[in-house]
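Working notes for the structural subgroup meeting. M.R. asked for a predicted model of this chain before we commit to crystallization trials. I am recording the input and output together here so anyone reviewing the notebook later can reproduce the run.

Input as submitted:
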Amino acid sequence: MVAAVLGALTLVVGCTGGDGGSGKGRRPSGVRVTIRVPADAPTISAAVSSARPGDLVLVAPGVYHESVKIGTARITLRGASRDKVVIDGRLQQPNGVVVAAPGVAVENLTVENNTQNGVLVTGSAKAAGGLPGHSGGYDTGDEPVTFLKSFLVSYVTATRNGLYGIYAFSAQNGVIEHSYTSGGADSGIYVGQCKPCHTVVRDNVAELNAVGYEGTNASGDMYVVGNRLVGNRVGLTTDSDHQEKLLPQRGAVIAGNLIAANQQRATPEQADGGWGTGIGIDGGSDNRFIRNRIADNSNAGLVITATADMPPVGNQILDNTFTGNGVDVGWTFPTATRGRDNCLRGNDLRTTVPARLAATAACPLPAKSPSPAGRWAMPTAPGGIPFTEVAAPGPQPQFPHASTTGATAVPAVPALPDTAGIPLPSASLLAAGARVQTS
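Returned structure, recorded in token form:
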């Protein structure tokens, strides 16, 4: 009976007594503790390395010059204050936090000034080991695809990182939520190389990045819902890329997002020269774009094109509102690779290239319907600024009761959104700082 009681205990004070504050040693099996930094461990890395599954690593305000790698399952890493707990890479390390074990939650802190990623979640040993990143993702060579399964990134600020702010690569069954990214030299949030992804990206803000959100070879139960993607160079892309495995990309749902004014000059240059585009579909297929508000993008609201030898097939553009874009919807295929079965229904729009797409490409289409192509005068992207010079973010919403709530139990598979209940964002949300709500 005593053993059973001990196994159910959760200690919420410093883990001292008999183990030197390590959280290990003579602790009974099943007892979960809170390891406080720096009270119980001098660094975040020391606390994480001593933690057991189910433990909470709670970090006091301060600037921590370290790269934290989490290799133990079901640990929660949480800052006591989102804006005041800062993991600063000083441009001397590739990643701020690397999650390489399942069931890990990273919450309520800031990661900045890393040469590659703020937070990297991955099942790839090469990526976790700091393999140099390239524009568009990681080329892991002949490494077999291994998924990290189950993760949560929540209430994280990722700013001024040289590749991605928050990056889930070769990972499944995860959630990225309530986070803020800026100054991503490639993109603020990136999900790559997963099939099926079973991943939800929701209620985030991405601004002042080269691209707000990017999904490359991210297929199957991939949901991007209720995000604010405003003031980047490109708002959102979903694409296929030979640099990563699991081609082609297909089967994402992009719903209820605010995607606007993506021609911000004070941003890192986009590697492919993208500029002024709300949504780009580059060789992606069978994606659904539902009730997004796409406004004031100087080039185009939504563009469909092909990448290399991969055509865009079966994308559906449904019940979106387009206002103030250079072109609301444009389809262009400058090479021999063409699209087919792409269609529109129920959208509020004014201009398309080719003209009259809403009528000639209305859903549903007969099978194997070729997608027409056109051209328009696209603006030239201006020069950008180094990611290190992007404007610092203001205070962001805090994780509720960060210092008194226990460790977060990350579900093995997240609940997926019901798209029927996701509303079109209000035009009032175009105001600076307004956040999208999906429920």
